[in-house]
Write a structure and sequence with these properties.
alpha/beta; Rossmann fold; 2 domains; six-stranded parallel beta sheet; binds nicotinamide-adenine-dinucleotide; Glu/Leu/Phe/Val/Trp_DH_C
C-alpha cells in the first residue's frame, strides 16, 4: 500500500506513529477529517500480526468514524487509534498514563474513548493525563442502552417505510446476539408489543433475556431463515452474505452490528429481494451520540432526544435513495459527504471574504 496515495484518494489528514520505550506503548492514530470538529474515535488494543495490518485497520476505522459522526449530525470529525500489543500482557497504569500524555500532545485534534480491549478502568488512567477523552464510566457510562434505543427507533422508521406501520406492536423481530445492546433492544421491542425471537451462542446471555421477557429462542444458524418481518443483527459483522441472503424471510434488516453487509454489492441484492436495509453506521450511532453529549456537558435526557433523531434521519436516507436511485448505503454516504462538503464551502467562502 502506498500510504500517501491512499490518504490522498480518501482525503485523510494525518497519521501519527507513537512509541514509549519505558512502557512498550506502541501505536498509530489516524485523523481522517476534521471539517466538522475534532476527530473522535476509540482506542483499540490488538495484537496485530504486522504493522501493515494495524495501518489498514486504523485507516479504515478512522474514515468510518467521519461518516458516522457526519451522518449523525454531530460536530465531530473521524479518527481512531490502534495500539499494537497483547492485551493480556501490555496493560499497566504506566502504559495507560503514557498513552494519555501522548493523546494530550495532540492538543485536542483527536479525542479518544473505549474500544476493543480497552476497559473503563484503563480509560480512567488515560484520563489522568489528558483532557481529550470521553465515554468515561463516571460520566456518560455504558453506551449500549443508547445504541439499543437508536436501533429501536431505527427499526420503527424502517418498518414505517417498508411496511407502512407506526408501531412495532405485532411485528415479528429476530434479534441475533443478546449481549449489551441486544438485551436492551429486546426490552424496548417487548415493551411496545413486538413478537421477538432471539439467538446467541452464550447461554448466560440467553437466560438473562428469557428470565425477563417472553421471547422464542432458536439455534444460532436458524436466525437467518426464521419467519420474521425484521432481522436485527446485534452480534457480528458480515452476516448478510452469499450464504445467508437467499434464506431471509424478513422485509427489513436493521440492527446494531457494524459492517452488516459482507460486501457493498449485498446492498443491491437486498434491494432486489425487497428487503429494506438500515445502514449500520446510521442506526447504531446512539452510543456515539451519548459520548458526544459528554463533551458538550453530560445530560442523559438530551442524549436520548438526540438519539431519537435517528428515526427522521433514516426516513431522509430512504427518500434520498429513492430520489437518486441509490442503495440506502450509498444514500447514507451521500448525506454524510454532503454535510462535510457544505461545511467546507462555508469555511472557504468565509476565508475568501
Ligand atoms: N455497544 C455499543 O454501544 C455498540 C455501538 C455500536 C455498534 N455496536 C456493535 O453492535 C454489536 C453488539 O455489541 P454489544 O456491545 O452488544 O456486544 P456484546 O459482545 O455485548 O454482545 C454480542 C452478543 O452476540 C453474541 N454472539 C456472538 N457470536 C454470535 C453468533 N454467531 N450467533 C449468535 N450470537 C452471537 C455474543 O455471545 C454476545 O452475547 C457489535 O457488532 C458491536 O460492534 C455496539
Amino acid at each position: 500500500m502506498n500510504k500517501f496515495d491512499y490518504m490522498s484518494k480518501y482525503g485523510y489528514e494525518q497519521m501519527v506513529y507513537f512509541y514509549d520505550k519505558e512502557t512498550g506503548l506502541k501505536g498509530i492514530t489516524c485523523i481522517h477529517d476534521t471539517t466538522l470538529g475534532p476527530a473522535l474515535g476509540g482506542t483499540r488494543l490488538w495484537n496485530y500480526a504486522t504493522e501493515e495490518e494495524a495501518e489498514v485497520d486504523v485507516l479504515r476505522l478512522a474514515r468510518g468514524m467521519t461518516y458516522k459522526a457526519a451522518a449523525a449530525g454531530l460536530n465531530l470529525g473521524g479518527g481512531k487509534t490502534v495500539l499494537i500489543g497483547d492485551a493480556d500482557k501490555v496493560k499497566s497504569e504506566a502504559y495507560w498514563r503514557a498513552f494519555g500524555r501522548y493523546v494530550q500532545s495532540l492538543n485536542g485534534r483527536y479525542i479518544t474513548a473505549e474500544d476493543v480491549n480497552t476497559s473503563p478502568d484503563d480509560m480512567d488512567y488515560v484520563a489522568m493525563e489528558t483532557d481529550y477523552i470521553t465515554g468515561l464510566a463516571k460520566t456518560s457510562g455504558d453506551p449500549s442502552p443508547y445504541t439499543a434505543y437508536g436501533v429501536f427507533v431505527g427499526i420503527k422508521a424502517t418498518c414505517k417505510e417498508r411496511l407502512g406501520v407506526d408501531t412495532v406492536e405485532g411485528i415479528k423481530v429476530a434479534v441475533q446476539g443478546v449481549g449489551h445492546v441486544g438485551y436492551y433492544l429486546v426490552k424496548y421491542l417487548i415493551e411496545e408489543g413486538a413478537v421477538v425471537t432471539i439467538t446467541d451462542i452464550k447461554q448466560d446471555n440467553i437466560d438473562r433475556v428469557t428470565n425477563d421477557f417472553d421471547v422464542t429462542v432458536v439455534d444460532p444458524d436458524a436466525i437467518y431463515t426464521v419467519d420474521c418481518d425484521v432481522y436485527a443483527p446485534c452480534a457480528l459483522g458480515a452476516t448478510v452474505n452469499d450464504d445467508t441472503i437467499d434464506g431471509f424471510k424478513c422485509k427489513v434488516i436493521a440492527g446494531a452490528a457494524n459492517n452488516v453487509l459482507k460486501d457493498e454489492r449485498h446492498g443491491k441484492i437486498l434491494e432486489e429481494h425487497g428487503i429494506l436495509y438500515a445502514p449500520d453506521y446510521v442506526i447504531n450511532a446512539g452510543g456515539l451520540i451519548n459520548v458526544y453529549q459528554e463533551i458538550l456537558g453530560y445530560d442523559a435526557d438530551e442524549a436520548k432526544k438526540k438519539t431519537e433523531r435517528i428515526y427522521d434521519r433514516l426516513l431522509d436516507i430512504y427518500r434520498i435513495a429513492k430520489e437518486n436511485n441509490m442503495t440506502t448505503v450509498e444514500a447514507a454516504n451521500k448525506m454524510a459527504e454532503d454535510r462535510i462538503q457544505t461545511m467546507k464551502n462555508v469555511r472557504s467562502n468565509y476565508i475568501k471574504r
